[in-house]
Amino acid sequence: MAMSNRLMIDGSYRDRITLGSGERVCLRLVRPSDKVAMQRAFAELSAPSRYKRFFGAKQDLTEADLRYFTETDGWDHFALGAVAVNEDGSEGDGLGVARCIRLADDTECAEVAITVIDRMQGRGIGRALLERLVTAAVERGITRFRFECLAHNLEMQNLLKKVCRVVETRSDGEIMVAETDLPRQLPMNTPSVPEQLFNFYELFRAMAIHSVDLQMSLSRAAMKRSMGSTLVGAGMLKHFKRPSLFRPR
Known about the structure:
- By secondary structure, the protein is α+β, with helices and mostly antiparallel strands.
- The chain has one domain (15-237): Aminopeptidase (3-Layer(aba) Sandwich), CATH 3.40.630.
- The chain has eight helices and eight strands.
- It has helices at 35-44, 47-54, 63-70, 125-139, 154-163, 193-200, 202-210, 220-226; strands at 15-18, 24-29, 77-85, 91-103, 106-116, 144-150, 167-171, 175-181.
- It has an eight-stranded mixed beta sheet, sandwiched between helices.
- The radius of gyration is 17 Å and the shape is globular.
- It starts with 14 loop residues before the first strand and ends in a 23-residue tail after the last helix.
């Protein structure tokens, strides 16, 4: 796959956007210094949002969690944040995060998670993050995304099945896992990366039409292991020896 010598979305990347509701948002890579902002954003997630995200109750983020979520290498573990822009142009509250982690045994596939705080859901932040996450992933040699969501989240399940051009799904009754291909190469000379990705990837259009902000989960299996318990009845997960989007290193 042909790739530019310089990444379009790297540590220097900044993109300020204005939402349809008027709020200004800065999209940039997550930094180690974002731990406090991430803890505050987590506190704004409702219990249902936390359940969708973590596949269970999650009361707070530990120091180990915060290190894992903010101290990424930018290549195998990539995290992009959405931050409010204050009236004076300074950064405000954290609003959302999209991340992908390359699978250890399938280096062209990455597991994806996207979360937007409740009061900002449905305004396009999830879509904006996902658009840029695809760009970053393709630049880093990733050709497929793996999504997970709760099987009883029927809206998300039907949406993924409807709009993913190349998709493989599995379910054990609790979790749905879907894989979809990414564009193999990005046109590097277009003025608007998000717009050209919008044309590439039908999922973005569906998200706009249905006003769906993806609430993709973290790995339930890894979470169970991190709590010292055994995952039962998840035969479809036993084949996936993947890194955890949740479990601290």
